[in-house]
Amino acid sequence: MLFQEIRGDKVAGLKGFGKRLKNSVKKSPYTQKQLSEMLSLNQDTFSNYVKEIYYPKADTLLELCTILDISVDWLLSGEGAPRRRGGESLPEADFSDLTDYEKELMYHYRLLSERGQGRVDQFVISMTEEETQNS
What we know:
Helix content: 55-70%
Number of strands: 2
CATH architecture of the largest domain: Orthogonal Bundle
Number of helices: 7
Order of helices and strands: EHHHEHHHH
Oligomer: single chain
Strand order of the largest sheet: 1-2
CATH class of the largest domain: Mainly Alpha
């Protein structure tokens, strides 16, 4: 059934989908308009996903979750870890020796809006992955 766009009034089990999608977009570096363009959707269609009038097709849902780095299960049901990376454990690190500059960066990061932090997160993660692949 997810392989076709479905009307919101036919799917009671997806309650809260729109709110989770809206919050995920706010935390991302993208606007709804940018995501619509990336997914080759009309902006009204994306808006209808947020309003829970319609739900995306499976392929659109998977691409959207990949772009936003969120779990499909979480977006659909609200259960599990919101981020796809949520299941991965981070390596142990000692932060007791942060330099003053690193502390200043953390200070400024915390002053950012959720959207700003999301943009920084996406950038740092992509740079880390790129450097890891190149080494």
